[in-house]
Write a structure and sequence with these properties.
This protein is an alpha/beta fold and 583 residues long. The protein has 3 domains: 75 residues, Ubiquitin-like (UB roll), CATH 3.10.20; 86 residues, 2-Layer Sandwich (Alpha-Beta Plaits), CATH 3.30.70.20; 358 residues, Rossmann fold, CATH 3.40.50.1780. It is 33% helix and 14% strand. A hairpin with a 2-residue loop joins strand 1 and strand 2.
Length: 583
Amino acid sequence: MSTVHMKINGKPVEIEAGQNILAAAKKANINIPTLCYHPDLPAWAACGLCVVKQENSPKLLRACAAPVQENLSIITHDAELYKIRKTVIEMILSTHPNECLTCARNGTCELQRFAAEFGVRQQPYEQRIVNLPKDESTTSLVLDPSKCIKCGRCVQVCQQQQGVYALEFIGRGDQTLMSPAASLPLNDSPCIKCGQCSAHCPVGAIYEKDETQDLICAINDPHKHVVVQIAPAVRVALGEAFNLPAGTITTGKIYAALRSLGVDKVFDTNFSADLTIMEEGSELVQRLTTGHGAIPQITSCCPAWTDYMEKYYSDMIPHFSSAKSPMMMQGAITKTYYAEKAKIDPATIFSAAIMPCTAKKWEIGRDDNMQASGFNDVDLVLTTREFSRLIKASGIDFLALEDEMADSPIGAYTGAGTIFGNTGGVMEAALRTAYKLITGEELEDVNVTAVRGMEGVRSGEIDIKGTKLKVAIAHGMANVSTLLEEIREAKREGKDAPYHFIEVMACRGGCVSGGGQPYASTDDIRAQRIAGMYNDDERSTIRCSHQNPEIKQIYEEYLGEPLSKKSHHLLHTTYTERPIYKR
């Protein structure tokens, strides 16, 4: 890659050709304000906040979209640029409601931050607020179009990174809206509830439904036995809300915080991730060795991906693992196995989950399979963001908490359960156990680095003592079609499937940057969170799911064996074709 030599505020900068001025300024340790730009998405220069000057030229450039050039000299900050940027902010505010105190993004809003930084204390322009109703049609997300600043991030991430096309531009000029086609309710659109629109929105125009009060009410109800599970990815992201570096492992403090809130039992979704591997791994081996079941087998842990598959690729249902997600397995086991051992009436158990994902709010009511215990297996889902707010509102000094342990018998987990939260992690965890199931031997080096990485689509061949297993991994929903079209093409031509096992995660990087994680996820942040997960894996004394003593115990005492009749009832599900647009 060739190098470009240029100047930023008189300072020489060398940067790879093809980069934008924004990147060059960052390399020179200069921050240029942006609202419409996000490093995940193609720049399209909508807001005008990032304007810079080209020295000795009257031209103003938008730094997010202007490419670097040899000998280019740029001025990023002066009195005139300050005035222009402040004017842009004031103009955006003239069409934005003054509801900061009651807004879901209060304190994390990018527009609010810039208004403070630029000292906006008065509104020089006439207010032109369009009063539009909120869309609360889904169980996961709320759209508040009156707060939309028309940055376009939600449309870009929905269409280009996720390939869902649930949101689009409707109207022109001041009347432009970001909305489902034909202004349908979001729940009637192709939306898969992944929440990437809310994660990328800079303001409070899209946010998760807040259900923290429901958990508080359950905790305060003396007739309820409140049990909470936490997902793998939560432990490496929650600390960011308390000014810890991304990737900091806070598992023990999370357990302590939940007990401080008054929760009766604290379990860990990592346990049921190990359980998922036992079921899903056994299912894969069965398909490979008996010919019973379609190849490739595709993972089914991500509810947004499940929803997408049922809408866009229902012909792939035979390839889907029937194993439920770890969260739903944990919920079913909580209200059956745990209830029996603890001698608690399952009707009194309130089962909550802390998840990195907004689609998990939808998953708990997905269909009747989510009531395998005879009750709602999971009653409530809070995102990582909701949980962080609840901790703060409850006066808990999170950083001062002493680490605690999860409760037994469904709280112990292995390193394999931890890495479920990042792209490639489910695959790696499954391969560690599949090796044992196929060969009868333990894998000597459990670090299956061939499946790690951040490429949107990765494929390879794993040698299990002579058994060649062709695997593929996709993350970011728009990348999935590449793999699925390969499978379709092979079927049409009567060829063997190009893969045996495929892992899919809806969000870029996997659950570490799910729609309910702390805001401002970038590839740098994702890398730190993923590193935290592998760190947690490496420091685990047990790193393979089949070696988890509590997993062995639950099969011996309750389930019998993987894929047994009881495990199928509690831990497996079915799929059905769903219309892309509801009528």
